[in-house]
Structures
1.
Amino acid sequence: MKPQMSYDTPMTGLPGAPALQNLPLKEQLKRGFKDMGQRSYSTGKNFALVGSIFAGTECCIEGFRAKNDMYNGISAGCVTGGVLAAKAGPQAAAVGCAGFAAFSAAIDYYLRHMD
């Protein structure tokens, strides 16, 4: 008997449920699209959260500084990364701040110096 792989387990997670590969094609597609829709919705919500935190913070910083330069995006990236990682502790928040600020700097630099 061959060992059961992780993709052979049923998507429902219920004990005794038939494996996905044993279902008719129509049911496999139905479950696959349902799962894809749920994951897409979840990913979209996360992306919207990150985008709204970043855009709102950048807008506020730009309003306070009354300048439009790279430092607004870098600062907003730091705040966004710190906020998203804050639940994991101060060290994670600092790493999130640095990582998101570096990413924001790279993207902003590329967009501002593109010919």
2.
Amino acid sequence: MQPAKSRTYHDPIHGAITLNGADPIEGMLIRLIDTAEFQRLRRIRQLDTAYLTFHSAEGSRFTHSLGVMALTRRAFAPIAQRYPLLEEHRAVVLCSALLHDLGHGPFSHAGEEIFGNQHEEWTCRLIQDSGVTAILQAYAPELPQQICQTIRHQYLPPFIYQLVSSQVDCDRLDYLQRDGYFTGAQYGHLDLDRILLALAYDPDSQQLVVTRKGLVAIEHYLTVRYFMYTQVYNHPKNLAARFTLGQIFRRVRTLLTDGEISADRVVTKWILRDKLDISTYLEADDTNFLYFIKQWRHHPDRVLSDLCRRYLDRDIFKAKDIGIFSQVQQQNIHQKMQNLLKELGYEPEFYCGIRKTLTKGYTLYQQGIQILVDGDLIEISRLSPLINALTQPSPRVWLIHPRLPEELDKEITSWFKL
């Protein structure tokens, strides 16, 4: 096999990402990027419906995946130089970083809620049975299985999968910076250089750890992550847009079942949650679903056409925080809104709902973040009062409904008095 030509990707976050085609592993990465399976990620938005809230949030899973690979390579190289035995895992960690989101479907995480698929499991299926498989096996027959073990947090040493997916990993380091950049939010700025310098390998536990000098940078990183979730990922407009999108496909599912609407084979199978084969899975991305949303805007079903219009024209529902009320009070408010919407001619089950979010700045996910202090490993929340505070969950409850006539404001406002 001829070595791949070198390739440079100009990235707004990481600058020039250059892959050396003469390096067997980086040449393989170039060939993986050129597959139809990986190119499909260009057609899946990284932040699903967030572009309706943050107008420049147009980045794709493709650009994020390249960024994660670039960061992983940058983090891995100096550590492997200090611990040469890790070098044998270089292909696994770089391919895992590049391909970790290969299984994402239409509308990214919003699509997982709507269609019931899990992108990690589909990533493993595609790695083991698609166009990327032969490329991986040509390098090493066991490589597809090793990548799946990494994605499932089963690979040893754990340092390898932790570099890709843990509480402080290259996936999060990329998406926090990238999403902050593309949304225009100021929360996503990280001291990336300091964090990468502080990442280390502990040969006794074989874990990814952080040296003591990196504590402040990690505190900053976890604070950034907390604010990105509260102010960007769980923004009330995002929740309302996701609600609208979900209600569109819920309505279509009913109409498909009753034979009152049609779609192509791929979209029909996804919406009806039929068992999907790999070919049907790979044919789905944001573009073909958005095509049908545009067509359904003119469907005679009044609910469906209106929901599609709202989504396409950004006539987004409102989201009212009702988390201060008891669960009984929340249900009472929800019922009052449903009754009002019914009086106004809406079908309440499609126009009103409750959505809950739970934000934690830090959890003991996969043993948490271990700080190396004088040869001992100490979990970060024991060292940092700030991080200990971030372990407390921040639940929110939202009532989602259409914008209503101003003359009803006084009545609606009365429901929200304690």
